[in-house]
Description:
By secondary structure, the chain is α+β, with helices and mostly antiparallel strands. 20% of the residues lie in helices and 30% in strands.
Amino acid sequence: MAYNEDGLERRTSVILLQHWNELRDERLFPHEDELDTDHLSPIWEHCFLLQVRDVEQVEDYNFTYIGPKLVKAYADGVLDMDNGQMVSPQATALAEKFRNVITSCDPLLEEGEYTNAHGELVKFRQAMLPLGTEDGRVLSVLGGAWYKVFVA
Length: 152
């Protein structure tokens, strides 16, 4: 387990999953309106919220929120926009993973690594969690990503 000095969980993916499970209770998943961003404030800068619209007709995903730590990492070139594994401001890069979360209605938690354009090793953990209606329709995806860059 990974805890901070106060004994609280510090992994973004685990905190998100715990909050999601608390909100959904016995339901398939919670609704976006139920999110408590105050509760998520320690990790919110590493989170994103993706809206799902007309996925069957158009490959179009619209982020309504991308945390400033993720935006800065891409703007500074630390993370690659087209890495194909980790969430990026271009949502279509992970269309298959988003589609899996949307169709399965199940959370996706993963970790991995890749070498960025600067030859640095990037290790990451990320979570993607469905949010939607009580009748089982996914309307959005809540996610979070943590990364560490190892200079070659």
